Amino acid sequence: DAKTTQPTSMDCAEGRAANLPCNHSTISGNEYVYWYRQIHSQGPQYIIHGLKNNETNEMASLIITEDRKSSTLILPHATLRDTAVYYCIVRVASGADKLIFGTGTRLQVFP
Amino acid sequence: DTGVSQDPRHKITKRGQNVTFRCDPISEHNRLYWYRQTLGQGPEFLTYFQNEAQLEKSRLLSDRFSAERPKGSFSTLEIQRTEQGDSAMYLCASHNSVTGSTDTQYFGPGTRLTVL
C-alpha cells in the first residue's frame, strides 16, 4: 500500500501557483519524498525529491514540514500543460526500490 | 522524451492470444523496471532487473507473465493466454544505481494493451 495520502483532485487558474499537499505521517528517517506527474497517456515524469530541506528546481519547489510528516509541491506559475495527475511517493534512498504509487492528485489548470 | 522507448505503443489482441512487449532503457542504466497501470489507478510494480538478473517479482506477475533481459540491455515482457483483465498500460522504467543512491527512475511512454 502507498504510504502517502493526497487529495483526489484540485483546480488551479493558469498563471497562479498550484500547491499540492501530501501527507506521509509514517515516513522513516531514511526515506525521501519524491514527486512524479503523469500527463494523459504518457509515462510518469520525475519532478523533484527531498529528504528534509526544501528543494527547488526548474520545474517546482518542494516544501517539507519540520516533522517530515507532510509536504507540499508548488508549481509557481501553473500553465495548461501542467494539467496532470501528480503522485507523491516516499522511498528509501537506495534507488533500487520499486516505486509504490497511490492514486495521486488530478490537477486541472483552467484558463 | 526520457530516452526510454517501448514498442509497440498500442496492442489490441483477442483473449487467449500471446503478446510480447519490448523496452529499450537508457543505455547506461543497469536497472530496468516493469509496471502495470489500469484506468484510474497509479502504476503498480511488476518486476525489475539488475543487468540481466531478475531480482524481484510482484505477486501480480502470474505464471502467464514472463520477463527477460538477456544481455542486460533491452527487456521483453510476454503475456501468454491473455485475459480481459490484462488490459492495461504496461510501463517500463530504467535507473542507474551506480551514479547515485537518489537517482530517479525514468519512464517510457508505455504500451497500451486491449484484450477483446
Q: In angstroms, what is the radius of gyration of chain B?
A: 14 Å
Give the overall silhouette of chain B: globular
DSSP strand content of chain A: over 45%
Which stretches of chain B are low in confidence, meaning pLDDT under 50 for 5 or more residues running? none
Largest interface (CB within 8 Å) is between:
A-B, 23 and 31 residues
Mean pLDDT of chain A: 92
Helix fraction bin of chain B: under 10%
Distance between the termini of chain B: 30 Å
Order of helices and strands of chain B: EEEEEEEEEEE
Kindly estimate the percentage of residues of chain B that lie in beta strands according to DSSP: over 45%
Structural class of chain A: mainly beta
Rg of chain A to the nearest angstrom?
13 Å
Judged by helices, strands and strand pairing, the structural class of chain B is mainly beta
Shape of chain A: globular
How many β-strand stretches of chain B?
Answer: 11
Biggest sheet statistics of chain A? 5 strands, mixed
What is the subunit organization of this protein? heterodimer
Number of helices of chain A: 0
Features:
heterodimer; A: 111 residues; mainly beta; 5-stranded mixed beta sheet; 4-stranded antiparallel beta sheet; 9 strands; B: 116 residues; 48% strand
Summarize the structure.
The complex is a heterodimer of chains A (111) and B (116). With 111 residues, chain A is mainly beta.
Can you give a write-up of this model?
The complex is a heterodimer of chains A (111) and B (116). Helices cover 0% and strands 47% of the residues of chain A. Chain A is globular, with a radius of gyration of 13 Å. Chain A is mostly beta strands and 111 residues long. In chain A, a hairpin with a 4-residue loop joins strand 5 (55-56) and strand 6 (61-64). In chain A, strands 1-9-8-3-4 form a five-stranded mixed sheet, with no helix packed on it. Chain A has a four-stranded antiparallel sheet with strand order 2-7-6-5, with no helix packed on it. Chain B is mainly β and 116 residues long. Chain B is built from no helices and eleven strands. In chain B, the strands form two sheets. In chain B, strands 2, 4, 5, 6, 9, 10 and 11 form a seven-stranded mixed sheet that branches. The chains are: A mainly beta (111), B mainly beta (116). The interface between A and B is medium-sized, with 23 and 31 residues.
